[in-house]
């Protein structure tokens, strides 16, 4: 057990020169400050290790606690702005920020957050002089060319702005199949189809009307953010904005309608930049290019349409960062961890299957609540802090576990799993990869849990009092409060699915929604976190928009916001280390002292090797070969939420 430093050990520290403690002169520039900060973090980390050694204080020996001890250690915090979470990370589970993040990227982020910019900080963000998209694109390209050999920054890795076609309909649409949020595009309901048809008739859009009438069934999909106001507790016509941190920012609740051709081309047809409760109260714009093969329209200069697409991606930034990424992986998985720690004994097979997928999640989430959300997300979002916290809490409480099992989720959104390899869906690489990964993980979990030693039949599951206690803890108002978690788990099938889901959230799902942020979001014009000018209130106003109107919506006069928008994705997209990927997990499982897990681990390792080849083929079949989709490649797939 972790113990206190003894008095005799403390005496050793007197008059001892502490290693790595060096007083540095005041930095003369940004790069010097950054270099010092990065070195400081590394020295601090070594300093902690040295103190543990000399004080005879063990921090890394695996500990085993009784169920009662775990219940006492893992207590819920139920009274702050966030959904239920761990009150205090136990010392034996606590991991410091420098151990989680790249020291250089973390130092860069802290300098930006604290406004410690020096004479050359302007290199990291554009200014008012970059007042055209062409100038912004050239500025982005120049930053990538000027990378130093020692200190790298957010421009070290490629971003979408290096593509000459980043603003086109094709690249815009493909982001909802292979971008950071590929999880919410949904078959358009009859209600939405009727609404857009009526609006097309009102605006005299004959080509759009003809397409509605001629297209095969199930050809129209939506990215629907129309429920933002309801979920945030705002009125249907309330203007969404955030005036904190010295920069007025606006949020929007966009809706985008897409046409998916039989050959898999996803094409945007219409956009509502900000849905305010009804079509009559909202602005709707239709794409001049009804046919994705139409080259008669100059997409680069179609500023009203480009502005509308920016609104969609800004809305998607909010949904992705606050819900799809933060809530649906980090916070939901934390609830699983705390409830399992409180109700499952260390020897329980479900606990043993889940624990390797937790690693640093609790410490990481504590940092997110104390720093990332209040100090980064709120200052760059277009929604007020009360709206943001209400949005997160509402999403957590209503997280629908069973409907989000991968096969059920894909089916409900209009992507039949038995048709994912058809031409129509070949560009939806996320769906194809994630479904295969779910099947593989479920096979692993099933082979362990169905063994006669654990759950030979449904009765053995129904009679497991710890599983029932786990369910109760997840649902209880004094626990996680997730009422959509099963009231009870009474069959082997149900238990296999739920354990698979918990691993899925921590590993492939988090990987899919986290590690693409740097590429798609460090070039701020592609996906700004907010708009920096009011939204248009009529279609006539929007149709008059020029390039200057779109530029005014970007944070060219708000450097801190721009830098945070670009830096945070870079901080969070560090390459997955070999010892953290799912291939290494399978290798470790294959040598587990439990022969049942070891056997399943060996099969998992073989299955992952096969999946790696399948995923390469899926990426090679994309129409867009400029940006491969390899985020779920097993060697790049994090085994846990590690960043």
Automatic annotation (TrEMBL):
Domain of life: Eukaryota
Domain Lipoxygenase: 246-613
InterPro entries with a match to the protein in the record: LipOase, LipOase_C, LipOase_C_sf
Example GO biological process: lipid oxidation
UniProt GO MF annotations: metal ion binding; oxidoreductase activity, acting on single donors with incorporation of molecular oxygen, incorporation of two atoms of oxygen
Keyword vocabulary terms for this entry: Dioxygenase, Metal-binding, Oxidoreductase
Pfam families attached to this UniProt entry: Lipoxygenase (PF00305)
Keyword Nucleotidyltransferase: no
Protein name: Manganese lipoxygenase
């Amino acid at each position: 057990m972790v113990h206190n430093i003894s008095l005799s050990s403390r005496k050793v520290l007197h008059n001892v020169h502490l290693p790595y403690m060096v007083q540095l002169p005041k930095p003369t520039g940004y790069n010097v400050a950054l270099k010092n900060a990065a070195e400081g973090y590394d020295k601090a980390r070594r300093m902690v290790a040295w103190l543990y050694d000399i004080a005879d204080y063990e921090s890394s020996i695996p500990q085993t606690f009784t169920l009662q001890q775990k219940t006492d250690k893992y207590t819920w915090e139920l009274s702050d702005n966030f959904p239920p979470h761990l009150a205090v990370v136990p010392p034996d589970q606590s991991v410091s920020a420098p151990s989680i993040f790249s020291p250089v990227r973390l130092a860069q982020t802290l300098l930006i957050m604290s406004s410690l910019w020096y004479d050359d900080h302007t290199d990291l963000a554009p200014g008012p002089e970059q007042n055209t998209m062409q100038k912004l694109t050239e500025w982005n390209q120049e930053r990538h060319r000027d990378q130093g050999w020692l200190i790298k920054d957010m421009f070290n890795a490629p971003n979408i702005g290096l593509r000459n076609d980043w603003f086109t309909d094709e690249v815009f649409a493909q982001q909802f199949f292979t971008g950071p949020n590929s999880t919410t595009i949904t078959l358009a309901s009859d209600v939405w189809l009727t609404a857009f048809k009526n609006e097309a008739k009102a605006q005299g859009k004959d080509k759009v009307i003809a397409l509605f009438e001629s297209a095969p069934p199930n050809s129209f999909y939506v990215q629907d953010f129309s429920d933002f106001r309801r979920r945030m507790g705002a009125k249907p016509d309330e203007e969404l904005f955030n005036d904190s941190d010295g920069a007025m920012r606006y949020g929007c609740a966009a809706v985008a309608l897409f046409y998916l051709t039989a050959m898999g081309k996803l094409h945007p047809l219409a956009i509502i930049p900000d849905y305010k409760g009804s079509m009559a109260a909202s602005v709707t714009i239709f794409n001049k290019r009804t046919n994705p093969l139409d080259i008669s329209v100059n997409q680069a200069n179609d500023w009203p349409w480009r502005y509308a697409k920016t609104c969609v991606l800004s809305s998607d930034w909010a949904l992705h960062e606050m819900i799809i990424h933060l809530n649906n992986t980090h916070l939901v998985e934390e609830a699983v961890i705390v409830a399992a720690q409180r109700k499952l004994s260390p020897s329980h097979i479900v606990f043993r299957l889940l624990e390797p997928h937790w690693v640093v999640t609790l410490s990481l989430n504590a940092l997110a609540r104390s720093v990332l959300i209040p100090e980064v997300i709120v200052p760059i979002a277009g929604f007020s802090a009360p709206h943001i916290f209400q949005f997160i809490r509402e999403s957590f409480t209503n997280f629908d576990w069973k409907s989000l099992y991968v096969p059920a989720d894909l089916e409900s959104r209009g992507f039949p799993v038995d048709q994912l390899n058809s031409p129509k869906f070949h560009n939806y690489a996320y769906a194809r990869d994630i479904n295969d990964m779910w099947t593989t993980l479920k096979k692993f979990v099933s082979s362990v849990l169905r063994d006669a030693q654990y759950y030979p039949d449904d009765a053995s599951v129904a009679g497991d009092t710890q599983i029932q206690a786990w369910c109760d803890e997840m649902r209880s108002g004094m626990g996680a409060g997730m009422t959509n978690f099963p009231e009870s788990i009474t069959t082997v099938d149900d238990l296999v699915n739920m354990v698979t889901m918990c691993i899925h959230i921590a590993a492939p799902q988090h990987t899919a929604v986290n590690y693409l942020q740097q590429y798609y979001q460090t070039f701020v014009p592609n996906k700004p976190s907010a708009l920096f000018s009011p939204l248009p209130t009529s279609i006539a106003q929007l149709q008059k928009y020029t390039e200057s109107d779109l530029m005014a919506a970007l944070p060219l006069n708000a450097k801190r916001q721009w830098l945070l928008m670009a830096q945070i994705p870079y901080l969070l997209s560090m390459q997955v280390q070999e010892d953290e990927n799912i291939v290494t997990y399978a290798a470790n499982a294959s040598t587990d002292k439990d022969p049942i897990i070891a056997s399943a681990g060996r099969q998992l390792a073989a299955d992952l090797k096969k999946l790696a080849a399948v995923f390469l083929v899926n990426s090679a079949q994309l129409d867009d070969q400029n940006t491969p989709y390899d985020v779920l490649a097993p060697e790049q797939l994090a085994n846990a939420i590690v960043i």
